[in-house]
Design brief:
This protein is α+β, with helices and mostly antiparallel strands. It has helices at about 1-30, 35-40, 55-65, 135-145, 150-170, 180-185, 195-210, 210-225, 225-235, 245-250, 265-280, 330-340, 340-345, 350-385; strands at about 70-75, 85-90, 105-110, 115-120, 285-290, 295-300, 310-315, 320-325. The chain has an 8-stranded antiparallel β-sheet with strand order 4-3-2-1-5-6-7-8, covered by helices on one side. InterPro entries: PepSY-ass_TM (IPR005625).
Length: about 375
């Protein structure tokens, strides 16, 4: 059995090493991505304006009038009047060709008081300029910037292998023979000696000391990349987890989805009405519309809070409530799913948790590299013996 586990750990580790090393480094950077982006691009965040903010529909009207081939699908509006609102736009369909206009999706930043544009950027574009750095890191960490769903599936499968390997690696640290605890203590120590010995100890002891942090991050990685395909079905074996509104409506025939019945102004008012019925007191900070499945989503409160923000979803034709994702509500399985994003970013423990995730990202990189070094040195030793 131990030989099988060693084989699994060796080749799962080699298959994952590059991806985990990259995910670790980018995750370490992204632990404070908002603060980093604000420092790199202060003009996209601070407008200096004061006074009442324009309602969402007026902001949408201003930007869609200025760029008539584009349409807003997502908005962020912070509480502070001197902070810019974010509007993400995608091309409209050309009525003559039935295809989207040849325009790139763009994110525009508007002064909430005057409606004037203060900046723009093309989200996810390569690579390291101040404008592109944080969005590119976010996309790369999430899906390696691969087209379609290839990156999501690839990183999701890596995450599944990582969860499995967490348990395999733990078992491999268990000593053979007795006394168990006395012998196992050695696996937790980094001993002085030859670099080969030190490298092995860093890999083994580092994995042990960090195991209770690595496993939750690995599990949350599955939830981030393959929520409907893997995470929710597995959790539902213990406690039911409802599919997202997006997933549920994707199963409906296209002719039953309806058509857009109102704009962002009415959507904002409907969101506030639903919020009062649900006793949500936090302000709306995010609002989006799914053109594909004809529904609106509204986020309430700070999405960077310890538990994440609350979401409600309502029909794009008649405004009826379709679903909610409210932290602390729902089945045990749904509450467990809601915790995955705060766990993954460390926000569940506040500022200290984010620092912990930043350090853990570097540790994941080190564990990946030391694992490859162990394999390489053992491979060289085997080749020398054969010679």
């Amino acid at each position: 059995m131990r030989a099988i586990l060693l084989y699994l750990h060796r080749y799962l580790g080699l298959a994952m090493a590059l991806f985990l090393a990259l995910a670790g480094l980018t995750g370490s950077i992204l632990a404070f991505h908002h603060e980093l982006d604000e420092w790199l691009n202060p003009d996209l965040y601070h407008t200096g304006s004061s006074g009442p903010a324009l309602p969402p529909d007026q902001l949408v009207e201003k930007v869609e009038t200025a760029w008539p081939r584009m349409q807003v699908w997502y908005m962020e509006f912070p509480d502070e009047a001197d902070h810019a609102a974010l509007l993400a736009l995608v091309p409209r369909t050309n009525p003559e060709t039935g295809k989207p206009w040849p325009e790139k999706p763009v994110v525009r930043y508007l002064d909430q008081v005057t409606g004037a544009q203060v900046g723009e950027r093309y989200w996810g574009e390569c690579c390291f300029s101040p404008r592109n750095f944080v969005p590119f890191m976010l996309e790369f960490h999430y899906n390696l910037t691969l087209p379609g769903n290839w990156g999501l599936w690839l990183m999701g499968l890596v995450a599944i292998a990582w969860v499995l390997d967490c348990f395999v690696a733990l078992v491999l640290t268990f000593p053979r023979g007795r006394p168990f605890w006395q012998k196992w203590q050695r696996a937790w120590k980094i001993k002085r000696g030859h670099s080969t010995r030190v490298n092995l100890d860093i890999h083994r002891a580092g994995g042990l000391w960090l195991w209770l942090l690595l496993l939750p991050v690995a599990v949350s990685s599955v939830a981030m990349n393959l929520p409907e395909q893997v995470f929710k079905p597995v959790v539902s074996l213990v406690s039911p987890v409802a599919p997202s509104v997006y997933a549920a409506r994707s199963e409906l025939p296209a002719d039953t989805l309806g058509v857009t019945g109102y704009g962002y102004g009415e959507a904002y008012r409907l969101a506030m009405d639903h919020a009062r019925e649900l006793e949500l007191v936090a302000p709306i900070t995010e609002l989006y519309y799914s053109f594909e499945y004809n529904f609106y989503g509204a986020g309430f409160g700070d999405h960077a809070s310890n538990e994440g923000n609350a979401w409600i979803f309502f029909h794009g034709t008649d405004g009826r409530l379709l679903g909610t994702e409210i932290p602390g509500q729902g089945t045990l399985g749904e509450r467990f799913f809601q915790l995955q994003a705060p766990i993954h970013g460390g926000r569940i423990l506040g500022f200290a948790g984010r620092v912990l995730i930043a350090v853990l990202g570097v540790a994941i990189f080190v564990l990946s590299i030391t694992g490859v070094v162990i394999w390489w040195r053992k491979r060289q030793a085997r080749q020398l013996r054969r010679a």
